[in-house]
Each structure stands twice: as structure tokens, then as C-alpha cells.
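Researcher: I've got a protein sequence and the SMILES for zinc ion. Could you write out the 3D structure of the bound complex as C-alpha cells? I'd like something to compare against our soaking experiments later this week.
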Amino acid sequence: MSMTTCPVCSSQKLEEMLSLVRQPVYQHPVSDEKKIPPPHFMDLSYFYCQKCEHSFQKSWDISILERIYKQYYYTPRPADVGVLFQNQFVQAFVDRFHLSDSFDSILEIGCSSGEMLARIAGLFPDKILAGFEPNRETAAMTSASDVHIYREFFTALTSQKVPQKFDIIFHRHVIEHVADFDDFFAAHQNVSHDSTRLIVETPCLNWSTHHLSMAPFHIEHLHVFSICSLTTLLKQYGWFLDAYLVTSNGHLIGFFTRINASRMIPAVENPFGLSVWIEKNKSLIYRAAEGKKLALWGAGSGGVKVMNYFNLCPDIIVDSNPNKAGKKFVGYPGQKIVAADGWIEQTSENSESWLIIVASTYFEEIRQRLKRSGWKGKIIQPYAL
Ligand SMILES: [Zn+2]
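Model: Sure. Here is the predicted complex with zinc ion in place.
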């Protein structure tokens, strides 16, 4: 599938915003990488619509996405991260949108194992709760027993069998994956009435460009919405923005009703800044690495991102955690991970022949530790060059 017009507003005023070479297809750890057919890497290209400020992948392959989701659903999400995001959602629901006493029924689309619905059931007893979740394994784990879970994708067709309309519909981190908006919103129509309220949570482009965050730009996200593009899209299906907030970690939570009212919306600042930032850092790193061996410090998701964004192929990956030694990243068979202590000891004498790139928020601690051990080589941090 390749887009020649904006998928939100159909404008042709499009410009490439971000070109990411060789990005990982599978971002979650898998138990047996040999079972996963290639491709393991793909080039991604995000375009930007000048008219509605929408960012989207110019082309994608639906069969690869379907395969990813099959894998992804088997990876449990980290509990602590999930709870923080849940708290922010609940806070918006209660304090910002004032929804505590105004509903009898609520539907979550993409409810996973139902943690959020269980939370709502605890806060607001005696409500009718339902959810859609296509993955059977995840849906089977649902803890709230009085929630009706439809174990399928939320489509115009599947939503027809739902016997009631809901006062509130919400989805979190779903809309940026949606390939067919007409079908998705026809399904909303089937389960809503004239005073249904809709809450949509999705990564925020305004926040990402302001904070130079690359987090939302990966293969699974066909779209990265700005406040303007989300509002523009939903308006076409009869949902109007009433209020919104952007959380501290860059999630946009929009609250929509059937009542047409215009709201002031901030513009996206510097949409092409991300691309400039990557190119600038790339050239600084390449210059610093000239004639040196390259060590990447940080065998976590930060390390993988640094390798991908800046297109680096380090000679070695070092990590403070000795348990990571000997392991490998999927798709990087040549990159060995070694424990920091032993590596520093062995390499210290030739430290000047190395450039260390620290892909960790503990940059200052790591730098101090290297200095104490007499390290004379250059140490840089890609996020603060
Ligand atoms: Zn547009």
C-alpha cells in the first residue's frame, strides 16, 4: 500500500519528514528468533501533511504487519510501565474530562487482558463494561469476570453483533495502527448513540517534535497524529474535540463528543527538526569515530535505537549488567555483548583507540567510572551532542 495523498485530509501537500534506514521489524524480544521469517529489517519513510499536520508512513505491507501482531501479542507488556500510563488515563478521565458520574456503560477497543476495564470496574461499580480484543490468548487472561470481551478485531462487521450502544467508548494506542479509518469509524457508529463520548489516546506528534523524541516512529505505527490531524480525522466521522491533554511522556488523550464546537489547537513546531537532528548527530558521531574502534555502551532498547537511528555497526556492545554478557540482539548476529568490568580492564591500555557511545541515561556515572579506571579514550552521548 502506498499513499499519494494524506490519509486524513486527502491533501497532496506532502513532504518527507523522516527517512529511517534498516529499522527492526520485531521490537519485542522473542523466544526463538529462527522461527521468525525475514524480513527482520525494513526502511521506513514518514511523510508530513502541511495541511492537517499529520505524519504517516508513505507505504506499508499489511502482511508483514499482521505477522508482527501475531508475535507481539505473545509478549506481555511491562507491568510498571503499563500502570503509570493507566494512572494518567484514569486521571484524565476523572479530573480533566469529569466523567465520573455521567455514564452507565463503557466500551474499550483493544482492551488487551482487560487491566484498564478492571480498574474502571473497581472505581465505578455497577456499570456495563465491554471490550474488543482480537488476540485470544490475551483476551482469555481478562481478570474482570463481569466484562464481556468480543474476541475479534473491531470492524464495521463485527460491531454489528453488539446488542447495545455505549455511553463512553475509548481506545488507547490503537488508532495509530489503523489502516482503514472508514471501517474503524463505521464500527464506532454501530456501538454509539447521540450523546456517546469518545476518548482516544495516541502518541503525540506535537510532543515528539518538541522533545526530539523518536519513540513513536516504528514499523507498527502507520500514523503519528498531531492534535490537529486527530481532530481533523475525527470531525469527518462526526466526533468533535471537547478537551485534550498531553501527558508528561508524550501521549495525547483527546476527548470527543457529538457536539460541534471549535477549539484552539497548537501547531506542530518544526516537524522536520527530527530529521535534521538525526543527520547532525550522525555526522558528529561519524567524525568522532574516524580511525577508532566503536563501542556502544548500553545493551537495552536505547542501544538498539542508537544503532538504528544513526546507522551504526559497533565493534562491541558493553553493558554494566553482567547478565547480558553473551546475549545478542535479534537480527544482529555479529554484535557481541560483553560485561563492562572485564572489558574495561582488558581494553584500558588501548583506550585511546576506542570511541565509546553511551546509549544510557546514566551517562555521567558511566563517564566517571571510566575516568576512575584511567580511561583515556573519547566518550560521547548521542542524545546530548
Ligand atoms: Zn492532511
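Model: The domain at 282-384 is CATH 3.40.50.720 (Rossmann fold). The longest helix spans residues 79-96.
Researcher: Great, I'll pass this along to the crystallography team.
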